[in-house]
Specification:
Strand order of the largest sheet: 5-4-6-7
Number of domains: 2
Largest sheet: 4 strands, antiparallel
Number of helices: 2
Helix content: 10-25%
Structural class: alpha+beta
Strand content: 25-35%
Radius of gyration: 18 Å
Number of strands: 7
Amino acid sequence: MTDDRSIAGRCPACGWESLTLAAGNRIICTRLECPRPTAADEILADAETEHVVQLGEATFTVRHPLRERLDDALLTCDLADWIAACDGPPRPPGRWRVTPADNGSWDWGANDG
């Protein structure tokens, strides 16, 4: 018999089908060997839906929105290629929220430092 608090899907930390609804409506992995039992709950609690770019003087990282994992859209996102093709950082160093622009380019939002 299946526990009525079981959640369909796999834990993003260990890959097992061991997710359950815990106290406070939190999602946890019940596998004792799981390296991060709260991973699913932490991921779902993140309200960011756009790209987050960390620019340095000569480096950058792009955190893609989770929706880009669907249908492998992350593999066709051209934001990292666009930044890499720039002659230097496209904005001052810091953490930026970046959204697609209507003209096919990118809109750079607030710099969170």
